[in-house]
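Before the break, one more example. Copy the sequence into your notebook; we will annotate it together after we see the structure.
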Amino acid sequence: MRRRIGGTEVHDVVVVGCGPTGLMLAAELRLAGADVVVLERRATQDLVGSRGGGIHARTIELLDQRGIADRFLAEGTTVPAVTFGGTRLELGALPTRHPYTLALFQGRIERLLLGWAQERGVPVRRGVEVVGVQQDDDGVDVLLETGDPVRARLVVGADGGRSVVRRAVGIDLVGPAATRTTLIADVQVDGDLQRTGTVDERGPHGLTRMADGTVRVVLTEATPSDGEPTLDDLRRGLTEVFGTDFGVHDPTWLSRFSDATRQATSYRAGRVLLAGDAAHVHSPTGGQGIGLGLQDAVNLGWKLGQVVRGRSGDTLLDTYHAERHPAGARALGYTMAQSLFQRSDPRQEALRDLLDTVLAVDGADEPVTGLATGLDVAYDLGAGHPLLGRRMPDLDLVPQGRARPGGAPAGGPARLFELLHPARPVLLELGGPALDAGPWSGYVRHVTATSDGPWVLPVLGEVAAPTAVLVRPDGHVAWVGEGSAEGLHDALATWCGTADGRRPR
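Here is what the structure looks like once it is written out:
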């Protein structure tokens, strides 16, 4: 839905970057009714290689909330555990329908998300090099290497750790510098190599034959480097570690990453916001990268949608940094802790052994699995019921009576996540006095249902069942009813915008 004003292309939102974060965000914006375009410098989506090894439970839940988790599960392999240090932590007891990690490389994740975004009608402009952004009181000009700028009301930089958008608006990345760098590549190797690996004082090294016949190489370098990697760098490093370069040739993908852990000081500068690797860079140890970006996207998408559609004022966007920055900081701390164990060193091995002992205590692993999977994320929405600010459990529901305006039809059993497929707020009544969504009823899905069984939250355990909840489009609980409607309309005003849908003054 491209518009032109005075010869300039204009959109509600421009997303810079067509990786997992940018694609998920663009699809969320389309669900919210926003006009969005994605600008991507790559000519094709097929230039990612085997980076990014999978996603954890909370990220799979987010895909489930939009009705597309099955697409990803069909492509990957579920692993019912995570490893912390040298300890395998089982996930089967987690209170989720997805108590596992999904092993699936980023290239395939991107292709599936691209398909989802295209189904939503998201336009992707490829071969477009963004060189900067300039914002004013009315919007943002996205400056291109060639051609006229593209203008938008708001811009999101999802353009990776070297984000042009972040640098253009002067947001700093802060945190520990790199202590090591690692080469990762997809190459051809002549011979019958299946898998070779070792860990030394540098870190891990390995070669693995993939299903398509290529070999994935991961090699920790002797000396950290930040330059563009070459095939000669890879050959030299392999020879140093294994005594041979295995005759590697014809790389389809070659990249270098480090264990630098840095986070943007702010996720917002006026009309420009950051998401994914543009907002936080870290070691891939622990598999947090793709999931963090998708969680950013789902937190931000509906908020941007309400702002550009005129339902909410732009102060709603301040909650994006307030919520996602602390969540990102915790995940980055986890990746730093994990990366300590990737070297062969007697001191670290002693620490690993001690952790094995500690984590073997019944229940001691719950804080780690909650953090690793993202299921324990709790946004600070004030004091009250333990559910407030946490992700809503995917309850089995039996709708009761006639559906309210905007609600689900009455009928057989349903899942809570099914109500979130359209990415709209859900007001769920589960007993107690009848509630009135008032003038928000045309926007909020209002459902009366029953649900059996205990309410169990990750780490916290069983909690008292509420009589009603207001669930945001990202699946987090914005209000909890405990036998009354107290505070409901305040929560609706905060998270669902003006009651009549008109632009706030």
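Residues 318-339 form the longest helix (22 residues). Residues 41 and 127 are 4 Å apart (CA to CA). Try to locate both features in your own notes.
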